[in-house]
Amino acid sequence: MVLICIYSGPGGVLAPRVEVLGASSLKVSWTRPINPNGLLTSYTIALPQPRFDVNNVSVTSLDVNQLDAYTLYSVTLTACSGTRLLGQVIRLPGH
Fold first, then answer.
1. Which region, left, alpha or beta, applies to residue 34 given φ > 0 means left and ψ of -120 to 50 means alpha?
2. How confident is the model at residue 38 (pLDDT cuts 50, 70, 90)?
3. Mean of the pLDDT values across residues 25-54?
C-alpha cells in the first residue's frame, strides 16, 4: 500500500490588524488561520523589510519599532503549516 499526503497551506488567513503606536513604531496583530490544514508551525511578518519570524504560534501580535518615520509600509502576514505558505497583505499609509 502507498499512502500519498498532499499538504495544503493554511486556509482562511485574514489580513493583520495594524495599530500605529508612534511615528516610528506599530503593533501588528492577527488571528489564527480558520483552517490551519495540519500543524501550524510559524508566522512571518514582513514590511517587506524588516522581516520577523514568529516561531511561537501562540503569539498573535508583534510590536515593530525603529521604523522610518513618515514612510509607507506594506504589512504582510504569512502563516506556515507543514511546507506550504499562504498570507494576506494590507497597505498602511505613512503618518
1. alpha
2. confident
3. 91
Write the pLDDT tens digit of every residue in 62-77: 999 999 998 999 999 9
- Beta-bridged to residue 25, according to DSSP, are 22
Where residue 45 sits, what CATH number does that domain have? 2.60.40.10
DSSP readout, the chain? ----------B--PPPEEEEEETTEEEEE----SB--S-EEEEEEESSSSEEEE--TT--EEEE-SPPTT--EEEEEEEEETTEEEEEEEEE---
Label residue 57 by pLDDT band (50, 70, 90).
Answer: very high
- Our count of domains for the chain comes to 1
Looking at the domain assignment, is residue 3 inside a domain? no
Task: Please indicate, yes or no, if residue 80 is contained in any of the structural domains.
Answer: yes
Q: Which domain holds residue 39?
A: 17-92
Sign of the alpha-carbon dihedral angle for 49, 54, 59, 65:
negative
